[in-house]
């Protein structure tokens, strides 16, 4: 089965409308055979299957992804149910099944794709109610599809249960990390004692990245940019801004950066700090080889934090050439041109790869989100005539379909729970504590640092 990303590539970034459907509604507008705009009502109509028509999978993904900017998911599913009921006269006691053709199978297919692509929509009780209503209407006519519908419901409930378990584990890990940070003043060990091998640490970081990446719903990218409209003609959707897993992933990046800085600054002996800096450089290098660019960037960001970067005596003993090569990856010039070239190479390697190790593509997440943000801000959602700018949503969906492909990769490396537990729960310094630790490692030399050190000590009651 083709991935969504491959389907978008084949379609050239747009939805190629079947000839029989191009004129189904004058409110849909096409350019070179691709749907580029339409009214909300026409786009919903285009989503609803009929006796012969089944919407293209790329259209279903794009519309369900973008529609939440102008209609709540439970309201959309309610409208789909109403259109199906009205068009096929499902309330009649004298339905002629043979006239409905493949309508039942087509509706079940739409529900299957919705629950598969956007399962988190169904954490809303209103969605589950609508799902039950539309399935009951279809099964009354097509009882032979009951097993198919049962499979859809079973898979959906499994996904939602898995999400609940993930969130519970995440909450416990975060609570343990906070507790340890509050109770432990000085570290009793460091990362190199727990995991001497840079390659092994890079592999364990990849485990964490792929697990957290896999839990982000594609709709979270759109919901992250949804704004509370003040216009009287546009409804406000405060209850839609659900981006918990996306935010948790950003927090993981920050934690890893602070962990790197904390590990380095926790050692008063210069030789130990040098050893750790060079260790993290090697870990970052292994992350590049794996295709784990998010951990790479977090490690570099940690070493570039002021409390670490100011340690001149430490850096004087470090192989700066190796670190310089890594820093090129984070060079923002030419819109992160160097990183984007590496990222393209990793994507090219992943396409058609048979070895699971070559399929891993973990983007620098902050930049990925930023790209989508600028795409969203750079183009209007609607045109002056009120029609929805679907061409914009094709482009957004193409970016996010790539992400969906990356998050489906299973980590091929063996798990080492002791390393994972250390990375996820080991105490990290706060910004103030990190700065104080840095000054303990190497005393302030200039007047600015001396004054700042004095101020920080006073604030900390030292």
UniProtKB/TrEMBL annotation:
InterPro entries: Ras-like_GEF, Ras-like_Gua-exchang_fac_N, Ras_G-nucl-exch_fac_CS, Ras_GEF_dom_sf, RASGEF_cat_dom, RASGEF_cat_dom_sf. The keyword Hydrolase does not apply. This is Ras-GEF domain-containing family member 1B. SUPFAM superfamilies: Ras GEF. It holds the Pfam family RasGEF_N. GO terms for molecular function: guanyl-nucleotide exchange factor activity. Coiled coil: none annotated. Residues 31-161 form the N-terminal Ras-GEF domain. It comes from the Eukaryota. One of its GO terms (cellular component) is plasma membrane. One of its GO terms (biological process) is Ras protein signal transduction. Keywords: Guanine-nucleotide releasing factor. The keyword Protease does not apply. Residues 197-444 form the Ras-GEF domain.
